[in-house]
Amino acid sequence: MAAQLGGKVACTLGEVKNRADLIIYWGGNPAECHPRHFTRYTLTPKGKFLPRGRKDRTMVLVDIRETPSAKAADVFLQVRPGKDFEVLTVLRALVKGQRVNAEAVAETGLTLEQLQDLVGRMKAAKFGVLFFGMGLSMTRGKHMNSAAALTLAAELNAFTKFVAMPMRGHGNVTGADVVMRYTLAYPFGISLTRGYPRFNPGEYSTIDLLVRGDVDATLVLGADPGATMPQPAIEHLRRTPTIVLDPKVTHTSRLARVHITTAATGISAGGTVYRMDEIPLPLRPALTSPYPTDEDVVRRIIAAVQRKPPWYPVPTNAPQTA
User: Fold this and answer.
1) Measured distance CA(160)–CA(140) in Å, rounded
2) CA pseudo-torsion sign 272, 275, 280, 283
3) Per-domain residue ranges for the chain?
4) What is the CATH code for 173-307?
């Protein structure tokens, strides 16, 4: 939704490794949530244009509390909870050379001098990248916070090369977005009840549908909503028939009517995973499994549904389909 508001300037993680001399993490804790991020792409690896690795890079961490990632940062800025949007707005104003009220800035938990120093670092960078996590997108402001971060990165391109990239959460969540986009034109919140895709977050989003009780059956693939969704949504999953396809027992499978054990993708089942920069990576299974893959199970379900007679009466003169 944030990208739809004003677009985004992005790149691959390979470009970050080879070019980025300024790394900003906002609302994320990669040291614990993405433990290979520092060593593979951002801080320590030696790049084509950064031959000294960590010595050629500056890292800035912006968060509401000091996390283990702060130990790796050159600059740590502690923002008051719920003030991310205000800080991003002030940064955009400073980038454009506009006046900023120091007293208003103080309400964010930072000083005007700290933000001016950050703007100076961003403008002086040869290649900057802003990684923002769920600490930015799941607090007050939600997608508007992300939109402000994307807009800040876009506006910095008037002075230098700057990109922004979300630090995605669960495995291959980017893959779900990409596949939905190139098949249905939208990343989420899609209804196919009329036979064509309709996009309306807040109405067709999964949590909203479950909380309102609009669905009477749920098929869960590669997710564990019983561990992450609000309690009213979880209770509706418990009340209605829920089918789970997962290689292991999860919170959702414990409340489901049916749990089909499947092979673990990338370990005992092949497939494609999308990295957080939307680069597809093919996976080859290293082990064999007695269980079917998710794709096999879904194809068998589709075939079984197609064999069932339609629920609505078919006119006697209507053409019959195989």
Assistant:
1) 30
2) negative
3) 2-166, 173-307
4) 3.40.50.740
Average pLDDT per block of 10 residues along the chain, 322 residues long: 87 96 95 92 94 95 94 95 94 95 92 96 96 87 90 96 90 89 93 94 93 95 90 95 95 95 92 92 92 95 90 61 48
Class for domain 2-166, per CATH?
alpha beta
Residues 6+ apart with CB under 8 A from 111: 102, 105
Question: What one-character DSSP code corresponds to residue 292?
Answer: P
Question: How many Å separate Cα 250 from the centre of its chain?
Answer: 21
User: Considering only CA atoms, which of 269, 210, 212 is closest in space to residue 242?
Assistant: 210
Q: Residue 101 half-sphere exposure, CB side, CA atoms within 13 Å?
A: 5
What is the rounded distance in angstroms from the CA atom of residue 89 to the CA atom of residue 157?
A: 16
Q: Distance between CA 97 and CA 94 in Å, rounded?
A: 5
Q: Which ranges in the chain belong to alpha helices (H)?
A: 2-6, 13-19, 30-33, 37, 84-95, 102-106, 112-124, 134-137, 143-156, 173-184, 206-212, 225-228, 231-239, 251-255, 294-307
Rg (CA), the chain: 23
- Residue 114 to residue 268: CA distance in whole angstroms: 50
Cα separation values, 122 from 78, 159, 160, Å: 18, 9, 8
Q: Among candidates 43, 42, 118, which has minimal Cα distance to 79? A: 118
